[in-house]
Amino acid sequence: MIKRFFLSAALVMIAATVSAQETPYLLVLGVVQDAGYPQAGCYREHCMPGWEDPALRRGATSLAAVDPGAQAKYLFEASTSMPEQLYQLNVAAPDSDYALKGVFLTHAHIGHYTGLMHFGREVMNTDKLPVFAMRRMREFLETNAPWSQLVALDNIALKPLRDYQTEPLGVLRVTPMLVPHRDEFSETVGFKVFGPRHSALFIPDINKWELWNRSIVDEIRSVDYALLDATFFDGDELPGRDMAEIPHPFVVESMALFDELTPEERSKVFFIHMNHSNPLLDDSSPQHRRVREAGYNIAHEGLRLPL
């Protein structure tokens, strides 16, 4: 009886380990606005620590969804930090075991799509890598060089997305959601990512929450994690700039709007896509402490969220 008990316990432990290994997850690869941290040409006080200490540098916002059961991985955004982020992803889900099955794009601002160049023949020379994008985003890539060469040479294969039409990816599902933003070259979407157990909302860019035709508070309540636009902490962050020209929901505005959320609901929020000037990048800043004490999270590279 004793031997049988230990054997059963061991089998349970092995099964639990295998189950944990096969659980899909989101991996945060970058958390900063399009240009990363420190930003090119910035030698102000807040940027200098990043120049002087490479360990403090941060990449442009990007996520990966990893499905161990299917040995598949997907990128959300093709950022300006693509080489480093592909390495991070390879460490977590090695290319020898996991195939990169696709890239999902939100819009045509430089930090969100220009990493596609690394899939070209000058670098990785990928073969028909699926790139999922909305109609205007696809047209932009098809009709503008050098992106059109990626299409012509079959380095990438453009796949259509439609507003609120879910894309099945085995045990994962991805749903794009149109959001209001500065849509000079393409529309802008956020994504809902569904796994077998958990779900996530990813909106790195939006003008203001109140301009959206959906309630962000209700959307937070509907998922397990919400990775949301935190480009600027407040309106005083860029002296001399007209903030109306680069509209985003200030973190202080978001926290005021989210005030009605319960503590459990607030803990779903992960602020992401922070400008190089955003004090949330400094975990010793009073602003960072204020956000954490209010019950919210600040996304960081390497963060894993089970799906």
Strand content: 15-25%
Query: What is the C-alpha radius of gyration, as a whole number of Å?
Result: 20 Å
* Relative helix content: 25-40%
In terms of per-residue confidence, which ranges show pLDDT below 50 for 5 or more consecutive residues? 1-20
Output the CATH topology: Metallo-beta-lactamase, Chain A
CATH architecture: 4-Layer Sandwich
Mean pLDDT, to the nearest integer, reads: 92
Query: What strand line-up does the widest sheet have?
Result: 6-5-4-3-2-1-14
Element string (H = helix, E = strand) = HEHEEHEHEHHEEEEEHEHHEHEE
Number of strands: 14
Count of individual domains: 1
What's the CATH class label? Alpha Beta
Class per helix and strand makeup: alpha/beta
**How would a crystallographer describe the biggest sheet?**
7 strands, mixed
Task: Please characterize this protein's 3D structure.
Helices cover 26% and strands 22% of the residues. With 307 residues, it is of the alpha/beta class. It has one domain: Metallo-beta-lactamase, Chain A (4-Layer Sandwich). It has a seven-stranded mixed beta sheet.
